[in-house]
């Protein structure tokens, strides 16, 4: 199958022409989509009526092993009993909207901070794939920022200064920024992970800033100075010229590369309107040999 891709933003994001991903099994098409991910970092597909099982199958077919620790599973158990199927919704186990002070809602609000998925564990997430099942009648976009374009726009002195830095990422940090409190026993399980600040993509020869709300400190630096540099880079990388906003319709399926982009949810009245998406994310480990 030949696929066509239309670029949606000057830096990145492609919308893929009509295709039903449930029927895509052949290696050439999957490889063409992977090449699309290399180039655009975010791919948008319309009208993908995935069931949960079909979404889980496609994610593995496309990019290998699934990630099962992309959220605070120590805090809140998954509604579907499968941690590889992330419940990106404002709905509780009883099917009702979460109440304003529900713990799951409070941790979910942190999706409104710029982040990449599961950078607080090792391996982190590589591709995330989000399927829109129920969309509210008000604006509730997801925004993406191109971290390769942001890297390219740094001056040479900054590129040299950050080339070998390593960053500690912790989900406890991104939640504490919002005032969320953890029990000591929970914190023990949320120790975090260390990743390079600059990632290199051998398939394209490009580099990208690897940042997230979870990025808490620079290894070997004093904490305040590390945090200031991280904030500076965050501000730089999320300027409007690097950002694309996705307005959802039911059936949309968006795949993003967490190594090359950040994303965030935009606020809406989530105690009034239902919003339900399902996410599958792959492990950022070497892809299985073709
Ligand atoms: C995610 C996420 C943002 C949104 O699915 O990982 O951060 O807009 N979603 O729901
Ligand atoms: Mn996310």
Helices and strands in order:
Layout: E1 5-7, E2 14-16, H1 27-40, E3 42-45, H2 52-63, E4 86-89, H3 103-108, E5 125-134, E6 142-146, H4 147-152, H5 156-162, E7 166-169, H6 171-176, H7 184-188, E8 193-196, E9 198-201, E10 206-209, E11 215-218, H8 223-237, E12 243-246, E13 253-257, E14 261-265, E15 276-283
Parallel strand pairs: 2-3
Antiparallel strand pairs: 1-2, 3-13, 4-15, 5-13, 5-15, 6-12, 6-14, 7-8, 7-11, 9-10
The structure holds N-oxalylglycine and manganese (II) ion.
Which descriptors would you attach to this protein?
290 residues, alpha+beta, 3-stranded antiparallel sheet, 15 strands, globular, binds N-oxalylglycine, binds manganese (II) ion
